[in-house]
Design a protein that fits this description.
The chain has 285 residues and is an alpha/beta fold. The protein is built from 9 helices and 6 strands; from the N terminus they run βααβββββααααααα.
Length: 285
């Protein structure tokens, strides 16, 4: 992935090296090591995307830069990469919202090591990347990527990491559209279907990440051969069935909150092929 060509975001906070004994909270993560937090605060829309995304078209391509912008010269490679990927999501969703006559308020992204405070009670390495709707912030400890490779056989690569970020940004999009509030209400009203709503939320985030990938692809000179395959491998690696098999040795669909490996791959692919967020109605499909 030629990510250096992307615009940088100003909404990144680097807390690496600052450790805090916080208890992990947060929601909307990728489900690594089977921590099922999405039922607490995460959610999607009981009625799908019909109203929330009415009139939204496919994402447009972000602007480009050839080298590291002067204001970020001296920033280390990890932070520069994160700023570039987050910046690309801001361009894509900013344009999509604008086309629908709405304003997009970007999320903040916190890089940390070990643990750090958050609006959802704290973030730590075990939880993995996740989005906290209470402070509209994404929390990422890059040790997660190594865990994916060691325990679940996911391939490495910069686009694999970018997909994870795009998935978490998609949760922010859901929050901005009121989808999370709608699902919390439905989960409370129908607790027996709480897991189904959580799965639909996560699959929708995968699809919206695919919409972002489509927009990046349209630039023609950012994605490289094998990039999309990297994202698909990560989506498969964090399917509930694969994680359950690796951690407890058996598969129990009734406990799923993120969807199977095949579902996650299929929905990412649906967003990538169409480039249209209106194709991401996982609640009525």
């Amino acid at each position: 992935m030629r990510w250096r060509r992307l615009e940088r975001s100003q909404n990144v906070e680097d807390r690496r090296g600052t450790r805090a004994g916080a208890v992990a909270g947060g929601v909307g993560g990728l489900g690594i090591i089977g921590i099922l937090l999405a039922l607490f605060l995460g959610g999607g829309s009981g009625g799908g995307l019909g109203e929330a995304l009415q009139g939204l078209g496919g994402g447009t391509a972000p602007a480009q830069t050839q080298e590291q912008p002067p204001e970020y010269q001296g920033v280390d490679e990890i932070e520069d990469f994160v700023r570039a990927i987050l910046g690309s999501t801001e361009e894509v969703w900013g344009d999509v919202f604008s086309d629908a006559g709405r304003a997009y308020e970007p999320a903040t992204l916190v890089l940390f090591t070990g643990s750090t405070p958050s609006g959802c009670g704290g973030a730590n390495t075990q939880v993995g990347p996740h989005y906290c709707p209470l402070d509209k912030t994404i929390y990422i400890d890059r040790e997660f990527y190594g865990e994916l490779q060691r325990r679940f056989g996911a391939s490495g690569g910069d686009f694999a990491e970018a997909y994870v970020m795009a998935h978490e940004v998609a949760h922010h999009v859901q929050n901005e559209l009121g989808i999370m509030d709608s699902v919390r209400t439905e989960q409370q009203r129908n607790p027996g279907q709480a897991n189904e709503y959580s799965v639909a939320l996560e699959l929708q985030a995968d699809c919206l990440a695919g919409v972002w990938a489509y927009s990046i692809f349209q630039q023609g000179d950012v994605l490289e051969q094998g990039d999309i395959e990297e994202a698909l491998q990560v989506a498969a690696a964090v399917g509930d069935d694969r994680i359950q098999q690796a951690t407890i040795g058996q598969i129990n669909p009734e406990r799923w909150t993120h969807g199977s490996s095949q579902q996650r791959v299929d929905w990412f692919h649906a967003g990538y092929q169409s480039g249209d967020p209106n194709k991401c109605d996982t609640f009525n499909s």
